[in-house]
Structure formats: C-alpha cells, structure tokens
From TrEMBL:
<dbReference type="InterPro" id="IPR014001">
    <property type="entry name" value="Helicase_ATP-bd"/>
</dbReference>
<feature type="domain" description="DEAD-box RNA helicase Q">
    <location>
        <begin position="181"/>
        <end position="209"/>
    </location>
</feature>
<keyword id="KW-0863">Zinc-finger</keyword>
<dbReference type="GO" id="GO:0008270">
    <property type="term" value="F:zinc ion binding"/>
</dbReference>
<dbReference type="Pfam" id="PF00270">
    <property type="entry name" value="DEAD"/>
</dbReference>
<dbReference type="GO" id="GO:0003724">
    <property type="term" value="F:RNA helicase activity"/>
</dbReference>
<feature type="short sequence motif" description="Q motif">
    <location>
        <begin position="181"/>
        <end position="209"/>
    </location>
</feature>
<dbReference type="InterPro" id="IPR027417">
    <property type="entry name" value="P-loop_NTPase"/>
</dbReference>
<keyword id="KW-0862">Zinc</keyword>
<feature type="domain" description="Helicase ATP-binding">
    <location>
        <begin position="212"/>
        <end position="396"/>
    </location>
</feature>
<keyword id="KW-0378">Hydrolase</keyword>
<keyword id="KW-0067">ATP-binding</keyword>
<keyword id="KW-0694">RNA-binding</keyword>
<dbReference type="InterPro" id="IPR044113">
    <property type="entry name" value="DEADc_DDX41"/>
</dbReference>
<dbReference type="GO" id="GO:0005524">
    <property type="term" value="F:ATP binding"/>
</dbReference>
<dbReference type="GO" id="GO:0005737">
    <property type="term" value="C:cytoplasm"/>
</dbReference>
<dbReference type="GO" id="GO:0003723">
    <property type="term" value="F:RNA binding"/>
</dbReference>
Length: 458
C-alpha cells in the first residue's frame, strides 16, 4: 500500500497549468498507468483461473475415456456463484458427472449391438441347420395326391375370377389352385362332412373356399384373415387328411412324429385348436378310420402327461413356442418327419417377442415342409419370414390387412321391419332368400328375434 501512495499523489497534483500544455513524457506516464486492484479481488481471479484449468483437464480426460466430443456449454458456465463451494465438493460433483456419462455411453453401445444382432437375425434365412450347411434350397412346392374335381379343373380362369370377386377374395402368386364352394367337392370323408353339419357349418367361408384347396394342393400360403373368418378350419382339416394318408400308407411307430405341427401364440388358442383336431379325429375313428393322435404341448401342463401321448407316436402337435423350444432342446420331441407347419396369428407371435424362438424351431427341421402363415396384418417382419421360409407362396386376403371383421358385421346388416311384437326390427343374415324372410316372420310371431349365425371355426 505504501508503494502506490506517491503515484496517487502525483495523479492529483499533476494538473495542466493555465495557458500551458503537458509534455510528451507526462503523456507517456498516463498511458502506462495501471489501475489498482485490491488483494481480495486478485485472489478470486487467480482461483477462477485455477478452476478453469482443472475443468478443462477433467473434460479432456472424459473425452479420452468415452470417445465423445466435449460439451462446450459447460465451459461457459459462470464460476462466480460457485466461489463459496470448496474445491473438494466441486471435484466430487465433476466425478459423479463423468461416471454418469460413462454409463450412458455403455448403454448406447449396447443398443447399437442389439440393433446389429437384430439386422443379422432378420437377414438369416428360416432354414434348418442341415439345409444351411449344405446350401440346400427348394424351388418347387411339395406335391400331394389331392387334385380338384375334374369338372372344376375344366372351368376357365375367368370363371374362377368371378367366384373370387363375388366373395371378395384377393389372391397373389403363380399357379393358384381354383376356388371350391363346397366341402364335398373338396373330397373330405363323410365323417368330417357329418361333423361339420353337427357344428352348423354347411358352406365354406371365403377364406375356406380358396385356402383349403390351396393347402390340399401342397402350396405354401400366407392367409390374411380376421378372427371369426373360419381360418382355423383352413389349416386343421388339411393336416388331418395328410396324417390320415400317412397312417394308412405306413402306421406310425412309437416315439415317431409329429407329421403336422401347429404353433399358436397363447395357451387358450392352442387348447381351442387342439379341441377341433380331437373332434374330427374322433369322428374319423368312429367311421372305421385309423386312430390319429394329437398332442397338446403348452405351459402350465405336466410334461409327463404330454410325453405319454408322444411315446405312442403322434401324428399332430399343437404347441406354444416356449414349451416346444424346451422339448426340442431336451430332445424329447423330434421334427425329423415333420412336413407340415402352420403358424396361427404369426403377427401376434412376433409382437409378443417369439421371433427368436420361431427361428430356432425352424432349425430343427430335416427336410422340405409345407409352411402356412396366418396373420391379421402384414408387417415387414412377416414379409421377411415369407421371403426366407416359403416356396412360391400363395397370398390369400379376404379383407384389408389389419381390417376389422367386416364379414361378420355384414352377416347381420340386413334388417327385417316389424320382426318383433314390440316393433323392434329383427336382425337376419345378409343373404336375400325366402328362407330368411320366413325365419323372420316365424320368430316375430313367437316374440323372439333371430340371432346372427356364429362365425365358422374362428
């Protein structure tokens, strides 16, 4: 403080005299003048410089560890308000930030690795290990002994197109089999025809008109149909016929099979499908046909009970992906002779995360198989499945992909005026036939309203 005192006095007394001018030496002294900075302020400036150097060093270390670019916005944060925080606390805060950044970088790397694995899985073909190892590919679909009636084959393609247009059936593919409008013309046994009549099923639905002949011909198929369109019968009736043919040629021995495999996304749907198969197999047995055994492999059931059926030789199997994977890995089930595979509600299975299991199941097949995909929508993953797993597939669409069950709604769209005694209109089937009008009148006299007929085979 004593050193600066003469300078302060000179600045006050060094005034320009009246009528005179300041010398050049005096002007130079003014230019070299340095204002006084208190000691406390100088210490704060020095502390800020040290903190800035420390922060820059920590940022460079983070950049080297994580490989990410340093964020410049943190360097611009004013340090004045933090002057009351000790250096130890600030160092701890910076250390926590660096650890958080390292964790986020690891998560980002894991996500990138998952994306790479997904892209590799999508690009991997749905083939067995043997087929991939030997480079085996199939150019032609499986041939079967079934043929449409001769008079159906003699009809022109224009007539088949009129039938498809009438029932709003959209088809894509090469060599599409003709549509058939009755179960009898599809050459089903009398026992199955009687069973259909007992269930109240007299005529096939649109998906059945085109889908059943396509599957009986041995073609791979993609069926886009809503729940309630009768798609379950489309893949259950043909597999029964194929297994019946195999059993008559050469009876199944112990621990042999299955020949047909149906995979469902849920236990409830698997139980329903298994019940339909058991119903028609029992009718065939009552009609002096060989016994066809069907196994149900789902979670929540005893494996011992499921294996009891498989030990005697099983023709058909209905399973969920999880339980089937478990049985295949434990070598309790073999797919050596399986030649028929149906994936019911394939889009739902993929949404539930079973895509990896389905790809693993495909690797257990030993030969060419007929593959059927049934889906209410047509997402990109289903298209990738079709490209890598199906051979010259036929795509059958009985409504827009993802559309609601408009067919079921149309069946109840016609209204008969004055159908009931209370004046409430009665709903009747959409077909404009005298039988519908008679039904409406009779039910109206009895004070009841006709119900819309239930969908066939869900």
């Amino acid at each position: 403080m004593e050193e600066s005192e003469p300078e302060r006095k000179r600045a006050r007394t060094d005034e320009v005299p009246a009528g005179g001018s300041r010398s050049e030496a005096e002007d130079e002294d003014d230019e070299d003048y340095v204002p006084y900075v208190p000691l406390r302020q100088r210490r704060q400036l020095l502390l800020q410089k040290l903190l800035q150097r420390r922060r820059k060093g920590a940022a460079e270390e983070e950049q080297q560890d994580s490989g990410s670019e340093p964020r410049g916005d943190e360097d611009d944060i004013p340090l004045g308000p933090q002057s009351n925080v000790s250096l130890l606390d600030q160092h701890q805060h910076l250390k926590e930030k660096a650890e958080a950044r390292k964790e986020s970088a690891k998560e980002k790397q894991l996500k990138e690795e998952e994306k790479i694995l997904e892209s590799v899985a999508e690009g991997r073909a749905l083939m067995s290990v043997k087929e991939m190892a030997k480079g085996i590919t199939y150019d032609d679909p499986i041939k079967t002994s079934w043929t449409p009636p001769r008079y159906v084959l003699s009809m022109s393609e224009e007539r088949h197109e009129r039938v498809r247009k009438k029932y709003h059936i959209l088809v894509e593919g090469d060599g599409i089999p003709p549509p058939i409008k009755s179960f009898k013309e599809m050459k089903f046994p009398a026992a199955i025809l009687r069973g259909l009549k007992k269930k109240g099923i007299h005529h096939p639905t649109p998906i059945q008109i085109q889908g059943i002949p396509t599957i009986l011909s041995g073609r791979d198929m993609i069926g886009i149909a809503f729940t309630g369109s009768g798609k379950t019968l489309v893949f259950t009736l043909p597999v029964i016929m194929f297994c019946l043919e195999q059993e008559k040629r050469l009876p199944f021995s112990k621990r042999e099979g299955p020949y047909g495999l149906i995979i469902c996304p849920s236990r409830e749907l698997a139980r329903q499908t298994h019940g339909i198969l058991e119903y028609y197999c029992r009718l065939l047995q009552e009609d002096s046909s060989p016994l066809l055994r069907c196994a149900l492999c789902i979670g929540g059931m005893s494996v011992k009970e499921q294996m009891e059926t498989i030990r005697h030789g099983v023709h058909m199997m209905v399973a969920t992906p999880g339980r089937l994977m478990d049985l295949l890995q434990k070598k309790m089930v073999s797919l050596d002779i399986c030649r028929y595979l149906a994936l019911d509600e394939a889009d739902r299975m993929i949404d539930m995360g079973f895509e990896g299991d389905i790809r693993t199941i495909f690797s257990y097949f030993k030969g060419q198989r007929q593959t059927l995909l049934f889906s209410a929508t047509m997402p990109k993953k289903i298209q990738n499945f079709a490209k890598s797993a199906l051979v010259k597939p036929v795509t059958i669409n009985v409504g827009r992909a993802g559309a609601a069950s408009g067919q079921v709604l149309l069946m109840g769209s016609r209204i008969c005026e004055g159908g009931g005694q209370d004046g409430v209109p009665a709903r009747v089937p959409a077909e404009d036939t005298p039988a519908c009008t008679h039904l409406c009148r009779e039910e109206g006299r009895r004070g009841r309203h006709p119900r819309v007929p239930a969908a066939q085979g869900g």
